[in-house]
Amino acid sequence: MKAHLDSFVLALRYLLKWSLISLLVALMAGTASALFLFSLDAATGYRERHPAIVWLLPLAGFAVGWVYLRWGGRAEAGNNLLIDEIHDPKNVVPLRMAPLVLGGTVISHLFGASVGREGTAVQMGGTLADQLTKVARLDSADRRILLMAGISAGFASVFGTPLAGAIFGLEVLVVGRMRYDAIFPCMAAAILADQVGQAWGVHHAHYAVAAVPALAPWPIAAILAAGVAFGLAGMLFARCTHALSAFMKRHVPYAPLRPLIGGTIVAIAVWAVGTQRYVGLGIPVIVEAFAHPLPIWDALGKLAFTVASLGTGFKGGEVTPLFYIGATLGNTLAPLLDLPFPLLAGVGFVAVFAGAANTPLASTVMALELFGPAIGPYAALGCVVAYLCSGHAGIYRAQRGVKAPLSANPDADPGADR
């Protein structure tokens, strides 16, 4: 009885401790995400009313690059710094990361770069959470959990998907392995951060997937085939972005010149194609993917513009562009696979993200939260197949890997990096 009582007391203390810490993390991350989303809406609206502002994108990129070079320090590593600190805790993440990435991302969207928003929210959530390390006198083990909770809170509050956000914080660190010691803090922080964002008046985009066919041999086979394409798209995105980034660092040593060059290319490309359809978040195009057929050029165009933006150093995230690529690619594949295009747009929306980020579980849960439970079996199959076919070439360089499910070497070191 004494052992059971001691165990209960320890569990109760754990819950009370992390409930309080998670609430503080949620308040900070949810508020920061709300400020970010409101700023993003204002910047996007201004750019759409003044499309010629895209010609200032090179100068904006140079300015942000110079600020990061002058004051960024370790903050330049972005999401990878947070993941590294979770794997190997050393120093508290500098607080300046939050305002730097917030300002840098808003500027990217204002002037027409093709970037996302998850990276910004995750970095702000993790950075603000980590400031509690010294206040709460947390040890290295607890600090790891704190950072994971901050990541979950940032992801959940920027997309309005609390369960997916919680699982993302647990799943993104190591390919093929999850840390359940942080499940309660991540879950609590994600759910509360989403509520904080809603309390500030944040509204998220809604997507309708009305026609979901019953499970049958052909729809299942078609989803499996589409999952392969989604996985290859995720792999292509990750590898091209990393390759361009490495090329620019090798040939353009002065960091501010990289986004200046990239901004010039993007601005000329916008002028050449005669549309701003492929810059910014692209939410209207994503909504279109659920409403009517779209050409393959939408997926290819968004991939090219995003690789050019992120690979040359513009700040933002990868996930919303991945949603765009996946939804438009799924829309294009739907008639070839004889499936309703809203269904395949929804599966592609999450599956390309699953393949690029190596997060099939978080992506599946996100599909349930965004599109409803009916899409669940198809989304799960699409996300898992995309994950298996992506080659684990993830968008996060600091993400570590265990033995791949299809590895030819069963004795591979489970702790080795990929």
TrEMBL record:
The chain crosses the membrane at residues 20-40, 52-69, 145-170, 220-238, 259-279, 299-324, 336-357, 377-396. GO terms for molecular function: chloride transmembrane transporter activity. It is a multi-pass membrane protein. Keywords: Membrane, Transmembrane, Transmembrane helix. InterPro entries: Cl-channel_core, ClC, ClC-type_chloride_channel. The keyword Cell division does not apply. Gene3D superfamilies: Clc chloride channel. Its main location: membrane. This is H+/Cl- antiporter ClcA. It comes from Pseudoduganella umbonata.
